[in-house]
Specification:
Strand order of the largest sheet of chain A: 4-10-9-8-7-5-6
Helix content of chain A: 40-55%
Number of helices of chain A: 23
Distance between the termini of chain B: 47 Å
Radius of gyration of chain A: 33 Å
Distance between the termini of chain A: 94 Å
Shape of chain A: globular
CATH superfamily of the largest domain in chain B: Type I PLP-dependent aspartate aminotransferase-like (Major domain)
Oligomer: heterodimer
Strand order of the largest sheet of chain B: 4-10-9-8-7-5-6
CATH topology of the largest domain in chain B: Aspartate Aminotransferase, domain 2
CATH superfamily of the largest domain in chain A: Type I PLP-dependent aspartate aminotransferase-like (Major domain)
Strand content of chain A: 5-15%
CATH architecture of the largest domain in chain B: 3-Layer(aba) Sandwich
CATH class of the largest domain in chain B: Alpha Beta
Structural class of chain B: alpha/beta
Largest sheet of chain B: 7 strands, mixed
Largest interface: A-B, 121 and 134 residues
CATH architecture of the largest domain in chain A: 3-Layer(aba) Sandwich
CATH topology of the largest domain in chain A: Aspartate Aminotransferase, domain 2
Largest sheet of chain A: 7 strands, mixed
Number of strands of chain A: 15
Number of strands of chain B: 14
Helix content of chain B: 25-40%
Chain lengths: 573, 558
């Protein structure tokens, strides 16, 4: 009790001394209340320490006590007011009546704009498959089966009897859905097995599965990037990674599409700046086979650069897993680079693996971190168990088709051989207005209008906004609808339709949504997916069909006036 | 057997007859009385959910617990870095590379979550139906070891509201047949060659079910939301989001660059104030009017078990000319007399809501998500929605599962079965919720919610409850920060139509035992469950169960 007693005396005297005589009475009653609360404070745990502090502090300097009190009040005020984020200066005060008037006046735009007549053909041109999307397929409105060059099932695994058997086995023991996120009882034996299989197959320490191919990049990258981290990115990167970078809010530097020399130049320029700073997380971000251009990335040079400049490498192998390399282990195997040189590899299970979902492989701490902090992993249900089993089975099929561990898998070499054959044949038969843009190892052949012909028709070099490239910040608005892009796509669609109608062959075209692309987009491409089981005869038929249908389409297209005339045809599609 | 396997073993062979397995996936209804129809009385206001508070001592103990964990964690980090530098390699800068993540960023995970890792991600095998088979394991440094056996637990952990997680029955037959007819995967985005007759049929069935003109399905629920908002909003749009919205909605909104305002969870007054202010103020700086305002809410909040106040939301949205997006991830199938979600439950015409989104994982035993709307909206999104052009389409077995389960619910397949499932989930949810209230536990959420969060508060009680119940053969999910506020750790019980009333009795008995042991019964009675209103409910198990069947069918629980 002694401490509060002493305080009482001290404090009253202090306050009395400070107050002018006329306010003495008021001062006294204030002092009494004040002291009462101070006494109360003394009874609280830790209160005596505060009291002691006040006492000591006052003894030396009463002004200091007042100053400290003012500081304390300011701190409390600041702490409470910081919650009101809105800038008061920017808000206008309205009365309730005025607000009612403003509400009545306000006319919002529709939730989404209606489909314009110019866009209608886009929807109508989506083929409707009857039954399986296999190497042969039936299409609504087309007589008889068509040869299917539009599905990405490069290894044709979805039609393999063994794959279907294991699928049925899992469904009849585990049902269809996983019914829970992986962290909450959604991780079944088959999921864990697939993670082990993927890690072993690709030669990585650990793997993690994602429920959808597209969300993988958008979830993996942001778990390792924050404001202040740095990514040096290929300027032809796919939409999933564009979105991932935007969300992560890291600093972005771009290097010219698939140009390691330019990358080296950028890294050299960045070096003196970075050397002065605290080390931050730095990534080089690129794709194995580029989704938009079909080219293969120059991995050896990039790996050399990332080691020299101490960057980590993020590689999207969605299009190259199960395709490139002697055993389908992707672009790393293609160039004989160990997987451990690539810090983060992501990929899709929905193409060569005839399944669904995505994955990421790499070192243990990197994968472990994702299990708790990667949004799409934590906040979404696991893959259906049978999907995991299908992917495992495909890996086993590839490995079993290899005689010994080192030589090539026969499944992959079948695909490689027919791909090679296709490129040779296509180049021979392709009309001069068309060019092959993809790398000749890519079984997804990109065929587009030749640059000269494009110029003749008045098509620009690229579509969309380059703001993201030049400023490093994505545009705040979506790209606008581009009629030239629409026409160029429509020319390709005409070739697709003629090929389908006259030869019963289904091919497709790149269907990027210009509005959503944050990077400049090159002209659209025809896409021809070669499968492992595609026969030489089918490729020959395709080459001839393509030659004849493109001839017909290009017969009336010589200059940009002809292009404008497409508009009516497009509206009547 | 001893714990020697470092990887999970193969699933043990199940030699039980099919009928036994089927019963373990979906328990037979024991009595006709154990059914209920969930519906909100039309015109009555939504009762405000009462979040009961524990005694102050519990709060203080919780804070002290975290304080101790943080102090001990920091001490261990300090000495660990000195004496075991190898274990901390990945946390420090080495050879010119920044660490994958900082010690600070990962502190919570390393020092708190890792200590109770055995309660998360328990690997399973087989169907996560009425029972779930978890592999027995033992935590060792840096991982787990297995002994090859598994533990069959009553399942309160999976999202299996209508009990369609089955490996027997019409849905499985449909899924198996689709593998023959359509293959395992479509291997193409929808816009290329990934649109089959089965996809269109599935979208038709879903649109009809939710009462909208058209729908689009996506292979993952998270992915549905993550990409949807990019097609709806841009930087001149205002998105108003409930503070407890799911991560996928928040992620999707973040991608658009739209201005986001958050309103207090379920607080309609706050929402109205926000709407009025925002319409009046317009866009920041320029004060031009907003292009449009989108209100994004969930039908049933998965961590709180609260329902959105749909009648009021629809009223506000119409009054303020905004667009309403409702995420029915947890409510579709699980709520309403015909299982059509919150609209059905509140008797509101689905056409008054602009976009109805939902997942197919939770009630239909499938996977993926959908959104449904007017034809002109869906038509535009078919050519302007990222998922349609860039991502895998839904695989055929999943489509077959969705179509067949929806047919069962609508009574077109196995007439009567769908209705029974709907009434069982409604009964089971109320039965378990009321039982827990009577016993004295604090549970959050609406009466009809199939998500029953059982509040634990203290972090140490999470592993205690999870482990004890696991040993008693009950699997539950425990959640805490960052999914919930740090102070209110909880066990989230997900009720299923597959559980029988007897299963629930067993669950109540065991939770009661554990609750006594680790002091979980601290409800004050304001949320109901007491014999005498106002008194803290502390019934014995026998008292609680005696009239629970009748009591849980009262219009208002408590």
């Amino acid at each position: 009790m002694s401490v509060p007693m002493v305080t009482k005396t001290v404090t009253t005297t202090a306050l009395a001394a400070m107050a002018p005589p006329s306010l003495e009475a008021l001062g006294d009653s204030f002092a009494q209340t004040f002291v009462y609360y101070l006494n109360f404070l003394g009874k609280l745990p830790g209160g005596s320490i505060i009291l002691k502090y006040i006492k000591l502090s006052y003894k030396n300097d009463p002004i200091r006590s007042l100053f400290e009190l003012a500081l304390f009040i300011f701190a409390v005020h600041y702490f409470l007011s910081s919650k009101r984020k809105e800038n008061k200066a920017d808000t206008i005060r309205f009365s309730d009546k005025e607000i009612n008037e403003l509400v009545a006046e306000w006319e919002p735009e529709p939730l989404v704009d209606e489909v314009t007549p110019r866009e209608k053909w886009l929807m109508k041109s989506i083929p409707q498959i009857i039954g399986a999307n296999g190497s042969k397929a039936f299409i609504k409105g087309v007589d008889g089966p068509v040869v299917n060059f539009a599905s990405c099932d490069y290894l044709n695994m979805s039609e393999l009897e063994r794959v279907r058997e294991v699928t049925k086995l899992v469904i009849s023991s585990s049902g269809v859905g996983a019914c829970g996120p992986p962290n909450f009882y959604g991780s079944a034996d088959v999921h864990v097995r697939l993670e082990e299989d993927l890690a072993t197959y690709l030669g990585a320490e650990r793997a993690i599965l994602y429920g959808q191919d597209f969300v993988t990049a958008g979830s993996v990258l942001p778990s390792f990037l924050k404001r202040g981290d740095l990514c040096v990115v290929d300027s032809g990167i796919n939409l999933a990674i564009q979105k991932a970078l935007i969300v992560s809010r890291c600093d972005i530097e771009w290097f010219d599409h698939n140009d390691p020399e330019h990358l080296e130049q950028i890294l050299n320029e960045l070096k003196p700046v970075l050397d002065k700073q605290k080390i931050r997380r730095r990534f080089i971000v690129t794709e194995g086979i580029f989704e938009t251009s079909g080219e293969i990335c120059s991995l050896p040079k990039i790996v050399e650069l990332k080691d020299r400049f101490k960057y980590r490498l993020f590689l999207d192998e969605s299009r190259s897993i199960g395709v490139l390399g002697q055993n389908g282990k992707g672009v790393a195997e293609h160039y004989n680079i160990p997987r451990s040189d690539i810090n983060i590899t992501i990929g899709a299970l929905s193409n060569s693996f005839a399944s669904s979902g995505g994955f990421c492989v790499g070192v243990v701490p990197m994968i472990h971190h994702q299990r708790i902090l990667s949004l799409a992993y934590v906040f979404s249900a696991s893959l259906p168990p049978y999907c995991a089993k299908v992917a495992s089975e495909v890996i086993h099929q590839i490995l079993e088709s290899t005689d010994d561990g080192r030589s090539s898998s026969s499944i992959i070499s079948q695909l490689r051989d027919i791909t090679k054959f296709s490129y040779q044949l296509m180049e021979k038969h392709l009309s001069s207005e068309l060019t092959i843009y993809s790398d000749s190892n890519n079984p997804l052949i990109h065929v587009g209008l030749a640059q000269k012909y494009r110029e003749l028709l008045g098509f620009p070099n690229y579509y969309g906004s380059a703001q993201f490239l030049t400023t490093g910040k994505p545009s705040r608005y979506l790209n606008e609808f581009d009629k030239y892009y629409n026409w160029e796509s429509f020319i390709l669609q005409k070739i697709i339709d003629l090929t389908l109608k006259n030869s019963n062959i289904l091919i497709t075209r790149s269907k990027l949504i210009l509005e959503h692309e944050s990077l400049p987009v090159l002209g659209p491409h025809l896409l021809i997916n070669i499968k492992r089981t595609t026969t030489k005869q089918q490729v020959e038929d395709l080459a001839h069909a393509l030659a004849s249908s493109s001839k017909k389409v290009f017969a009336n297209l010589h200059n940009n006036i002809d292009v404008l005339n497409l508009e009516r045809e497009l509206l009547d599609y | 057997m001893s714990f020697t396997l470092t990887s999970i073993p193969n699933a043990p062979v199940d030699n039980r007859p099919d009928s036994v397995i089927a019963d373990h996936e979906y328990g037979k209804l024991t009595l006709k009385e154990y059914l209920y129809t969930s519906k909100h009385p039309v015109g009555e206001p939504l009762p405000t959910p009462i979040d009961d508070e524990p005694p102050m001592a519990i709060y203080i103990a919780t804070y002290i617990s975290y304080l101790i964990l943080i102090i001990v964690g920091n001490i261990r980090d300090f000495f660990g870095k000195v004496f075991r530098p190898k274990d901390y390699e990945f946390l420090v800068e080495s050879n010119g590379y920044a660490p994958w993540y900082t010690a600070f960023e990962s502190f919570y995970v390393r020092r708190l979550k890792t200590r109770i890792d055995d309660c998360f991600a328990r690997p399973i095998h087989g169907v996560p139906g009425r029972y779930i088979n978890c592999f027995n394991r033992k935590a060792i440094r840096g991982g787990f070891v297995y002994d090859g056996t598994s533990n069959e637990c009553l399942n309160l952990s999976s999202y299996n509201y209508l009990g369609f997680a089955q490996s027997h029955g019409v849905c499985t037959d449909a899924a198996l047949k689709s593998v023959d007819d359509y293959g395992t995967s479509v291997c193409s985005p929808r816009a290329h060659s990934g649109t089959s007759d089965l996809h269109l049929e599935c979208e038709r069935v879903i649109a009809d079910f939710v009462g909208k003109e058209d729908a689009i399905i996506v292979s993952q629920g998270y992915g549905t939301n993550a990409n949807l908002f990019s097609s709806l909003a841009d930087s001149k749009t205002l998105v108003i989001s409930d503070e407890l919205n799911h991560a996928s909605i928040r992620f999707g909104i973040r991608l658009t660059g739209a201005v986001v305002k958050v309103f207090k969870h379920n607080d309609m007054k706050d929402l109205e104030k926000l709407l009025r202010n925002q319409i009046a103020q317009g866009q920041p700086k320029t004060h031009r009017p907003w292009k449009k305002i989108i209100i994004a809410v969930e039908g049933l909040y998965s961590m709180e078990g609260n329902l959105c106040n749909l009648p009021k939301l629809v009223e506000l949205k119409e009054k303020y000319k905004s667009y309403l997006f409702v995420d029915e991830a947890h409510s579709i199938g699980a709520l309403g007399p015909s299982g059509k979600g919150v609209c059905d439950y509140f008797s509101i015409d689905p056409n008054r809501i602009d976009l109805l989104m939902g997942t197919l994982t939770k009630s239909f035993g499938a996977t993926g998500g959908y959104f449904a709307g007017d034809k002109k909206i869906i038509d535009k999104l078919r050519i302007n929605y990222i998922s349609n052009n860039y991502t895998e389409s839904v695989p055929p077995p999943v489509l077959a599962q969705i179509i067949s389960s929806l047919r069962v619910i609508r009574g077109e397949l196995n007439p009567g079965e769908g209705e029974e499932r709907l009434q069982r989930i409604a009964f089971n949810s109320r039965y378990l919720r009321l039982g827990l209230k009577k016993l004295g536990f604090i549970v959050y959420g609406a009466d009809d919610s199939p998500v029953v969060p059982l509040l634990l508060f203290l972090p140490a009680k999470m592993p205690a409850l999870s482990r004890m119940l696991y040993d008693m053969g009950i699997a539950v999910v425990i959640v805490s920060y960052p999914a919930t506020p740090i102070i209110s750790a909880r066990a989230r019980l997900c009720v299923s139509a597959a559980l029988t009333k007897e299963d629930l009795d067993y669950i109540l008995e065991k939770i009661n035992e554990v609750g006594e042991l680790i002091y979980l019964k601290f409800s004050s009675g304001i949320a109901g469950g007491s014999k005498i209103p106002g008194r803290p409910p502390r019934m014995t198990l026998e008292e609680a169960l005696a009239t629970n069947v009748e009591d849980c069918k009262q219009a208002k629980l408590g």
